[in-house]
Design goal:
The chain is an all-alpha fold. Helix content is 85%, strand content 0%. The longest helix is centred in the last third of the chain and has 36 residues.
């Protein structure tokens, strides 16, 4: 990772997301599951999609879109659950 901007950015964003998962579920196992799912998704995409596409730019765009979708949807769900939990604590 030393000096690799792409990997450093990915690691930074992953660390932030895993921290959010930990704060939400208060469990290291949730982080492990998210990390394993991320790795499995990356391997699956590489094997099934990228190997069949000869254009590197299209591969990068596909990875970016899948990464954004796979992080945005759970993040929105967790934020909604957090707000609901927070409102529940206030009303009690």
């Amino acid at each position: 990772m030393h000096g690799n901007i792409v990997q450093g950015t990915y690691a930074f964003i992953s660390a932030i997301l895993l921290a959010i998962v930990y704060l939400h579920y208060e469990s290291i196992f949730a982080c492990i599951i998210v990390h394993m799912t991320s790795n499995l998704l990356g391997i699956s995409v590489n094997v099934f999609l990228v190997s069949k596409i000869n254009n590197e730019i299209i591969s990068i765009i596909l990875f970016a879109i899948m990464g954004i979708v796979c992080t945005t949807i759970p993040a929105i769900k967790m934020i909604k659950e957090y707000k609901a939990k927070k409102d529940e604590k206030i009303s009690i």
